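Q: Convert this sequence to C-alpha cells.
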Amino acid sequence: MRLSTSVSHKLRIASNKWFSLPRLGREVFSDLMKAKVKYDTKFGFKITSETDVPRAISVLSRALDQQVELQSSCFICNEILGENEKPGSIICAKCKDREDCYALYTMKFATLVENL
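A:
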C-alpha cells in the first residue's frame, strides 16, 4: 500500500493495512517496535489494535517531519472509510447495506474477543 498525502501535507496511514516507509534509522525503528507497530520484511509496517497509536503517530510525525494521521477503516471489510462517512462511523456504507451486516459484525467481534 502506498502512503497518501493531501494538499495540507498530511500523511494518512490506514489502520490494519501494510505500508512502507523510507529508511528512518535504528532509533526510529526501535521506537516503532516499542509502540507495537507490526513489521514484516516482505510487507512493511502495520498499525493494529495492539499498537500504541498516539506514540506511533508521534514517532512517525517526528521522523518524517510532517503531520501523520491514522485513517479509519471498516470494522467488517477493513476498507478505508470514505470522507463521506458519518464522523465516528466504524462500518462503511457498502457493508451497512448488506443484509447480513449484523451477522458479519458479530462474527468479526466474536473472533477478536476469542483471540484476546
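Residues 4-8 have pLDDT under 50 and may be disordered.
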